[in-house]
Amino acid sequence: MRAVGGLGAVAWVALLALLGWPSAAAGQQRVESCVTCHLETGDDRLADPVKRFGEDIHSAKGFGCVACHGGDAKEAGMEAMDPAKGYIGKPDRQQVQTVCGRCHSDARFMKRYNPALRVDQVTEYATSVHGRRLKELGDPKVAICVSCHPAHSIKPPSDPRSTVHPLKVAETCGRCHADAKHMEAYKIPTDQFQKYKESVHWRMMSIKGDLSAPTCNDCHGNHGAAPPGVTWVGNVCGQCHAVQAEFFAKSIHAKVFAQMGAPGCAACHSNHEIKEATDAMLGLGDNAVCAGCHAAGDKGGKAAVEMRALLDSLSGESEKARAILLQAERAGMEVSQAQFDLNGAKDALVKARAAVHAFTVQAVKKEGEPGFAIGAKAYARGVRALDELQFRRKGLAVSLVIILALIVGLVLRIRQLDRRS
Amino acid sequence: MLIPPNRHGRLWTWLDTRVGLAELEKLLKKKEVPVHRHTLWYYLGGMTLFLFMIQVATGILLLLYYRPSAEEAYESIQFLMAEVEFGWLIRSIHAWAANLMIFTLFIHLFSVLLLKAYRPPREVTWLSGIGLLGVALGLGFTGYLLPWNQLAYFATKVGTEITGVVPVVGPFLGRVLRGGDEVTGATLTRFYGIHVAVLPAITTLLLGLHLFLVQRHGMSVPPSVEQAGGPRRTMPFFPNFLLRDLVGWLSALAALAALAAYFPTELGQKADPFAPAPAGIRPEWYFMFMFQTLKLLPSYILGIEGEVVGVISFGLGGLFLLLIPFLDRRTARGEPSHLFTWIGIAIIVYMLILTYLGYTMVPTQ
User: In the structure, how many helices (H) and strands (E) does chain B have?
Assistant: First the structure.
């Protein structure tokens, strides 16, 4: 067993040497004594970090054990772990951010490896709920750097195997936030992960493959993770939904919601389980969110119903035009230009839907009006195409009658000639 | 025989004095068409000519609106189809008449082949006819690209790639056809030039020769009819045969009108060289048997690329077809020639089966 273990260790050393470990950056020797000993101990707790480190981004960039743990890897024995030589062993929870920050907060140093990478993670972390609880309360359960970026197997966010790849972020956060036992003391919900998986954002990301769709960190921040305050939820959503946010910021609801303590966008759209917004949300119908506060008699209720009617009407006109053009196209008529022009009505509908966030009928009407004009023009083109089709068919019938008459005349003449000859 | 000067009125007399209409009338009246059980096939040549005249007429009208550049070709046809009065009709008739013309041309060719109408002294008539077939296929190939839509673009890409397979001169020919290494706006411009100027000019010459020879030698009586004692009667070309021709032409016109009204030629999507090739790229039906043959050939035959073997075989096949009047010595001597009858039937069966497979076989097979 021992011999096998020894051979295995040699193989790992060779593999890690091939992978370029370690410390090209620091100009250190490529094979460290840490690796040799940790693999030879036969203790998995000591060997595993070494084995995993081969695929770590730091290893790929040429960093070795001493970059984080200190000590002297040139020493063959236990002297390598001499505190006098800077050895700190496994950093404790309070220490981790300092260890990581030594490099990651140093802009000049980081520029040599990844000039695009931010260097404010530690500062951001200090503003996060995690960082504040760690500093102020010494909370042993809050997330620290290695909670999300597992030590010895850290990969860049662009790597699909990374715990912070967009598709994995929710799962990584959910490891704690979806664990009712872990979160018990904090008295906050633990269904965010489950709800997020039901949301349109997750569907866009996981099914449509749009990695720019938001996940936890896009709304809460990553290193500075905190729940958005009720007054600035709109700013957060507005990062992507800029037009809607602009309309909302100028609307009556922005002020009223702030006074009510309602969380901006989330008041109507919810937060983690944001469903695809549909026209049904507007008005006073069964699924309308407006009905939560407004009634048919009040001014807001009337506006909601009117805005909904406008959207329905524009959507209906556009659909009617699309259907007639499709009918004409299927009949062989050339209506591709009209079909292209009809996209303008769709654009107007999108804009009118965004303008709903101004919560005034005028705003919706202003954005929707061009769409009505385009839809009417396209519909008229469809009607003209179908009329033209009827004209063609009647024309064909007339032509066929004339041709048939000519043929009959010719046949009679031929028979007459044949009889004569 | 002296024709009374005032027989057809004063205009006739005026023209006759200047262009010799009476001689033309005499010629027409003298021309006789044999009547026998195969007379029906005589109408195919005239039918093809009628459809060709429709092509010329509609083609000239299309020229008024068509703009031969990659930037404008598609849009100009879109405009023609949607905005120009009867533009749709002209384009649809042009496209449908092209297909019908090639169809009747093939039937005409095979009727001539099986009835041995190529035998002396009509060898040159046959040669000019085969030449006209080649030109018609060329018109079809070049015309297909002109709308500059997706299907046409990729079909031309495949078609010109096949040309590039021809040994020695293939790559050069491919570049000449494309006007470069790829199918681009330059290809469209030269296809347009070939379609509206070069090939029509060649057609005019070949057609003139073909019609002159038909006029000179008259209709060929099939050997089987001759052996049975020859046709029992004849009919005057003018007006008896010509009126029958007219019945056929009017029927073709009615069919064209119905096809154009119920199945107007589609325009599809504008060609996008950067888009992936659409599924189901097929050449026009008259190229399908060759396309399918190339698809079915193994990668290598006797160490030579299958596609090269296929292209060379079609070249040799075309040459064989061209030289049939000189190869079929028995028919030339007036003896029965079953071999060439069977060769003709084999060619027809081969084309039918491969065309059928081309439309029914799934691409993976």
Answer: 16, 4
Pair (A95, A187) in one structural domain? yes
Shortest CA distance from B233: residue in chain A? A421
CB of A164 within 8 A of CB of A171? Answer: no
Say yes or no: A199 and A105 in one domain: yes
Nearest to A414 among B243, B254, B267 (CB): B243
Provide the ipTM: 0.83
Minimum mean pLDDT range among A85-99, A230-244, B185-199: A230-244
| Residues of chain A with a CB closer than 8 angstroms to some CB in chain B | 332-337, 392-393, 395-396, 399-400, 403-404, 406-407, 410-411, 413-414, 417-418, 421
Please report which helix (H) or strand (E) contains residue B70, including its range.
none
Residue A159 lies in a domain: yes
Cβ of A410 within 8 Å of Cβ of B250? The answer is: yes
**A235 and A330: one domain?**
no
Give the domain extent around A333: 299-387
Domain locations in chain B as residue ranges: 35-224+232-275
pLDDT class of A8 with cuts at 50, 70, 90: very low
User: How many Å apart are CA B315 and CA B318, to the nearest integer?
Assistant: 5
pLDDT of residue B5: 52
Same domain, A210 and A238: no
- Rounded mean pLDDT, B84-88: 91
Distance between CA A241 and CA A264 in Å, rounded?
A: 13
**Residue B41 buriedness (CB in 10 A; 0-12 / 13-18 / 19+):** middle
Sign (positive or negative) of CA dihedral A102, A108, A112, A114: positive
